[in-house]
Here is the input.
Amino acid sequence: MKFFIDTADPAQIKQAADLGLLDGVTTNPTLIKRAGLPRDSALQTICALVDGPVSGEALGPDADTFIKEGLALAEIAENIVVKLPANAAGLKACRALSQRGIAVNMTLIFQPVQALLCARAGAAFVSPFLGRLDDICSSGMELIEEMRIIFDNYGFETEILAASIRSPEHVKQAALAGADVCTVPLDVLLKLLNHPLTASGIAAFEADAGLR
Ligand code: G3P
Here is the structure.
């Protein structure tokens, strides 16, 4: 499973890259707003920091506007992935942009058939939102499991990008369900290595080695 970081903050992206475990970046309008930078200059900065795919969200609301926005976003850098919502306008724009060789990440996916349509429309990635499903007492893990079965049934190359990750447990669920990519906030990425027995084991070994 690949790891993307879910932020538009260049400092956080550098910190994740320093861990040696950064395959790409996802942003959305909320994350861009939080980073306090205009979208296109934020994406330009991020694309220069990361070799892998960097998702930037196009704004609609109609297919023609999504296509226009997507074409402009794709000019920012070679590693830009255009993020579009999984509705009818987004689907139409997904097909048009994918046919021009532009990678698309279809976002806000909450049920498996949305993902099936997006894969048929040529999406490079589909983003099921685990945390937001869990928020309403629905199963994010089940969604990814079903998407995995459907994609494997038909041999789609579209990658399942688990998003709206709020905890290490979500990362585990995404990996168990066969997600290709998991996009995580920095605080969750750092928590993945935390275990009290690891910490106490290190302390004991250091003490026995005379380092403490
Ligand atoms: O990648 C999408 C993600 O940023 C949404 O996360 O926590 O706002 O549901 P959240």
Summary: The beta strands are 2-6, 24-26, 54-57, 80-85, 104-109, 125-128, 159-162, 181-184. The mean pLDDT is 96.
